[in-house]
Design goal:
about 400 residues, alpha/beta, Rossmann fold, seven-stranded mixed sheet, NAD(P)-bd_dom_sf, Podospora anserina S mat+ genomic DNA chromosome 1, supercontig 4
Length: about 400
């Protein structure tokens, strides 16, 4: 397979402008990088925040996309590259299992013209590549592309923000989470589905999920002990009565850990502020949305997740914003999470990919635009929006 000198990519050309197509140079890989032909990608709320809200965009054109799935075209592995020269602990035994023609997927940084996912070719460091496990039945690259961005988010949120131990490899009989309550608001979201599965794998057996009632059966199957429907006006009271029946956690808060998978001032933070108690830790997906994007309306984001207008936390509640793009600050996760941990969990069946909704369109640009519109209309529920980048099926 030979790569062209340039290829099409989806970019934001200027503030608040709709995405457009840009011919982008195809970058040959540097040491310990791979050039990958992208077959599938998926759209996330971050794409809408960038496009409709101009969120954290330093310059234009801005390349979109944080998850890819495709095939390795060219690979340059360099055993001479050491941690002292690169800052990376390259596991060459692990990465040498990669070869040209392998089907792979990964979480990458949007805004980076080399690796942003909404383009037909990406050039990606090997520590951001997961190899599709062999022998899996019933799913492939289309489903795999739903995994990396939000499973990385789940790991980063639980470990970096909440301080939950997720040792790898998991020690036999590891049950440090037994009996500890974790409330996941937005359990039916992509992030929520992965958070619940990760918690189950590491022994957290008292997960409280808040999601639309239509998702409750799936959430219980994935690891939630009890589910509540956020659509019920009295859901906060229902959760409170459940906690009264269950009893406390000794001297600590009844629920020590909260994950807000949505990050909405009115939809999630306000109700959570009525449940969290002194000593609780609350991890909130960013940005916190004060006014959501809609047709003809730009979103409004809170400047500080800890101090959101109209949200009053009890004294002693610790609120943290989840910044997934910082996950590489944890050297172990930087080196192991995508190349080793994620493929292993998928191969074991410990993690199931999200359900997919294929976004149609006659062209690459049309598919990208249609996906943004579906996000703006808040259509996805318990599924990921996936769409073809390169037309060839892999």
């Amino acid at each position: 397979m030979t790569a062209p000198k340039t290829h099409p990519s989806i970019v934001l050309p200027s503030p608040f402008a709709p995405p457009t197509l840009l011919q982008t140079p195809t970058h040959a890989p540097n040491p310990n990088e791979a050039l990958i032909k992208v077959t599938w990608t998926c759209s996330t709320p971050l794409d809408l925040h960038r496009a409709a809200g101009n969120l954290a965009i330093p310059s234009f054109p801005f390349h979109l996309g944080t998850a890819f799935a495709g095939t390795i075209v060219t690979l340059w592995l360099s055993p001479s590259l050491s941690s002292s020269s690169s800052g990376l602990n390259i596991n060459h035994e692990l990465h040498e299992t990669l070869k040209e023609g392998d089907r792979v997927f990964g979480f990458v940084s949007d805004g980076n013209p080399r690796e942003a996912a909404f383009q037909t070719y990406v050039t990606v460091p090997v520590h951001k590549i997961s190899k599709l496990p062999q022998g899996i039945v019933g799913w492939g690259l289309r489903e795999a592309v739903t995994v990396p961005a939000n499973l990385v988010t789940a790991f980063h949120c639980l470990s970096a923000d909440l301080g939950i131990r997720l040792p790898w490899p998991k020690p036999r009989g590891f049950k440090s989470g037994e009996g500890k309550k974790v409330l996941v608001w937005g359990g039916g979201s992509s992030v929520g589905l992965y958070v619940i599965q990760v918690l189950k794998y590491w022994g957290y057996d008292h997960v409280i999920a808040v999601a639309s009632g239509k998702h409750h059966g799936e959430l219980r199957r994935l690891g939630a002990r009890v589910c509540f429907d956020y659509r019920n006006s009295g859901v906060v009271g229902e959760i409170g009565r459940y906690l009264d029946r269950e009893g406390g956690q000794g001297a600590g808060p009844r629920i020590p850990y909260f994950v807000d998978c949505i990050g909405s001032r009115d939809g999630t933070l306000k109700p959570l502020s009525k449940i969290a108690e002194r000593g609780s830790k609350v991890a909130v997906m960013l940005p916190v949305i004060e006014v959501p994007a809609a047709e003809g309306r730009r979103p409004v984001f809170a400047a500080d997740e800890k101090h959101v207008e109209g949200v009053v936390w009890q004294e002693g509640v610790e609120v943290m914003g989840v910044r997934t793009l910082n996950y590489e600050e944890n050297g172990f996760y930087r080196d192991k999470l995508q190349p080793e941990i994620i493929p292993a969990l998928l191969a074991q069946g410990a993690i199931q990919p999200n359900r997919t909704r294929i976004v149609e369109g006659a062209t690459l640009l049309e598919r990208a635009q249609n996906a943004l519109q579906l996000l703006r209309d808040q259509v996805p529920s318990g599924e990921r929006l996936v769409w073809k980048v390169s037309e060839e099926e892999q």
